[in-house]
């Protein structure tokens, strides 16, 4: 368990408001889970450092509770039950859309069955679109742009590359990875009918140790670019294998800006790895630069350099919703969070964002960025001590990223 209580002795006696992190903290994606834990730990510490969450009976500290799902849905449901038995009213997860879908279903049933012990699900990175469309829930709030929003931004950049004629699609073989490959093919056909998809591949998630056979097929296909939603070690090992076989094309990725990818590719990734996020360390401005510097002071090891603003925003918006509701009861907080706006201009230059009430999808700006050597124009900060960082290629405002939804939000 992680607990970040920087209160005076008197204030620390109030009951903490507990946020349960349900994530794969061990196993093949343990590094990705621990990276999330550091972000949420720091966000909790920052709330507590300014006095905690203010309720009518006083200021309550936030407390982060670590719950290891080992990266699978069955274990995630088991630790969810444990969290609910401990009266944890807020749970966070993101590193698997399949796990997220299972948690949403479980919480829907639990909250209906036990109205006195309801809980909210805060999702920071499970981006399969159905989670805020046909599977939407009043108890689920997503703080990351979903796959259609992300792909739309990437395709805007791809469409401008007139030299691009051949693309290879590869993804992890589960709901999210399947969706990205299928939808990318559709969007390429719509926006660049002159571009051929020369290969389409699904691989087991978290089980492939050697991606050389996949990289060999990519190179042999004549592809000039790869589009992938891969994350964690599945992305790092893929780009490593591509480098080893001499593939010289581009990588259009959702998550190519961290967790070992820049360091793995080195100079071979310059101008070739394109990533997408709600923020990156080189967006510029005093607030953004200070955010990077403070995070690196808190976590100075290069391998711990994984800062995502959306995870900070998620905790900030939770604290604000609790204060507006004047209660830490899940139903009251859900109503306060639904439709809530957030002004992140002082937090890393995020800009304006809103938790859309109709589907509980956070609408926020996005940045498409490309890997460059640190110190080059627009790249003040590297990532993970690699000597390489990312420069903005395209900025999309919140209004530009917003897409319609098909959610028919059930009542609380």
TrEMBL record:
Domain of life: Bacteria
Chain ranges of the Leucine-binding protein domain: 16-374
The UniProt record lists the keyword Signal: yes
Keyword Signal in record: yes
InterPro entries: BCAA_transport, Leu-bd, Peripla_BP_I
Keywords of this entry: Signal
CDD domains registered for this protein in UniProt: PBP1_SBP-like (cd06329)
Family: Belongs to the leucine-binding protein family.
Protein name per UniProt: Branched-chain amino acid ABC transporter substrate-binding protein
Source organism of the structure: Sphaerotilus microaerophilus
Lineage: Bacteria, Pseudomonadati, Pseudomonadota, Betaproteobacteria, Burkholderiales
């Amino acid at each position: 368990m992680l607990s970040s209580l920087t209160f005076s002795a008197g204030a620390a006696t109030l009951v903490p408001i507990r946020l349960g992190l349900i994530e794969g903290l061990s196993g093949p994606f343990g590094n990705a889970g621990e990276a999330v834990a550091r972000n949420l730990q720091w966000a909790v510490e920052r709330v507590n450092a300014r006095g905690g969450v203010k309720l009518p009976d006083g200021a309550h500290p936030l407390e982060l509770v670590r719950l290891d799902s080992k990266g699978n849905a069955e274990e995630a449901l088991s630790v969810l039950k444990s969290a609910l038995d401990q009266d944890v009213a807020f749970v966070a997860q993101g590193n698997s859309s399949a796990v997220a879908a299972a948690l949403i279903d479980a919480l829907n049933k639990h909250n209906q069955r036990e109205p006195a012990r309801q809980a909210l699900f805060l999702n920071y990175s499970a981006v399969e679109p159905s989670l805020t469309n046909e599977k939407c829930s009043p108890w689920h709030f997503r703080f990351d742009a979903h796959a259609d929003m992300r792909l739309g931004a990437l395709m805007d950049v791809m469409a401008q590359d007139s030299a691009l004629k051949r693309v290879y699609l590869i993804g992890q073989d589960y709901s999210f990875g399947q969706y990205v490959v299928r939808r990318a093919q559709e969007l390429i056909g719509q926006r660049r009918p002159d571009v051929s998809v020369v290969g389409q591949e699904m691989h087991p998630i978290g089980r492939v140790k050697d991606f050389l056979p996949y990289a060999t097929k990519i190179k042999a296909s004549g592809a000039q670019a790869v589009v992938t939603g891969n994350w964690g070690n599945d992305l790092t090992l893929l780009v490593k294998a591509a480098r080893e076989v001499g593939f010289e094309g581009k990588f259009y990725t959702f998550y190519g800006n961290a967790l070992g990818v820049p360091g793995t590719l080195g100079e071979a990734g310059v101008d070739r790895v394109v990533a997408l996020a709600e923020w990156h360390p080189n967006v510029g401005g005093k607030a953004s630069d200070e955010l990077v510097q403070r995070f690196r002071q808190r976590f100075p090891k290069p391998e711990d350099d994984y800062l995502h603003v959306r995870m900070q925003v998620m905790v900030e918006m939770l604290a604000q919703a609790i204060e507006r509701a004047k209660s830490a009861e899940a139903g009251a907080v859900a109503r306060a969070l639904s439709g809530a706006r957030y002004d992140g201009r002082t937090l890393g230059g995020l800009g304006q964002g809103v938790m859309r009430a109709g589907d509980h999808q956070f609408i926020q700006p996005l940045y498409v960025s490309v890997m460059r050597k640190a110190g080059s124009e627009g790249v003040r900060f590297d990532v993970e001590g690699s000597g390489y960082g990312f420069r903005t290629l395209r900025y999309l405002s919140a209004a530009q990223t917003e897409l319609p939804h098909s959610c028919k939000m059930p009542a609380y």
